[in-house]
Task: inverse folding
């Protein structure tokens, strides 16, 4: 993936960046809902994300100014052949310095396969990747019932924060009417990383310092599920 980006003119500019742009671009699904929400916020984080992070009163997370939002941000990971694609990568700043927020958007979609499924189907490279992710996130072994997507999205947040020399990294689920089981998957993942609650549904992972690592859940504004953006393909 090239590291050359151009500003969007509308939410429809997000469609070509999707892995399956024709299949995934539809009203009410996470891709279009996310594009509509973030484009409406324009030069700032969506207000519900700001409110969620501000509620922690944590110096790394309060009063964040959005510097750059990158849809479908790709992060290469050791092992395997595919990169991890984050729905929105937000580079932010406050008085404490840079903060990278990796956003995983959800409507009705689940978090994909369990770690158990990935282990059963794993090639040698994929097994190496899982071992790499466990070492990176300071976990001896992920339980079989953990959602693999949460693992590599968190790794993406952490690795990108290191690339930017940011003081903090956040993996945040932006949930637009997501079913209750999605929240349970998130909370199980937080428990695996021994994350401690800061307030609301934001957690800190004590084993990380620079960058500090946070996990968050934020309910999105459901009105964006009713927005239909045009297709450019």
Result:
């Amino acid at each position: 993936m090239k590291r050359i980006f151009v500003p969007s003119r509308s939410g429809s500019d997000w469609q070509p960046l999707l892995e399956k742009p024709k299949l995934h671009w539809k009203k009410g699904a996470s891709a279009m809902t996310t594009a509509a929400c973030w484009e409406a916020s324009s030069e700032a984080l969506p207000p519900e994300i700001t409110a969620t992070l501000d509620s922690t009163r944590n110096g790394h997370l309060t009063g964040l100014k959005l510097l750059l939002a990158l849809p479908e941000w790709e992060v290469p990971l050791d092992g395997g052949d595919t990169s991890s694609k984050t729905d929105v990568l937000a580079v932010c700043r406050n008085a404490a310095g840079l903060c990278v927020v990796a956003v995983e958007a959800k409507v009705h979609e689940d978090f994909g396969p369990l770690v158990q499924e990935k282990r059963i189907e794993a090639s040698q490279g994929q097994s190496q990747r899982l071992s790499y992710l466990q070492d990176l996130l300071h976990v001896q072994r992920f339980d079989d019932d953990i959602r693999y997507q949460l693992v590599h999205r968190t790794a993406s947040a952490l690795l990108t924060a290191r690339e930017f020399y940011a003081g903090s990294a956040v993996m945040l689920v932006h949930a637009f009417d997501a079913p209750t089981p999605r929240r349970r998957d998130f909370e199980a993942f937080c428990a695996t990383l021994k994350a401690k609650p800061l307030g609301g549904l934001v957690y800190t992972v004590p084993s990380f310092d620079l960058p500090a690592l946070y996990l968050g859940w934020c309910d999105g504004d459901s009105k964006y599920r009713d927005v239909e953006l045009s297709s450019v393909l």
The two ends are 20 Å apart (CA to CA).
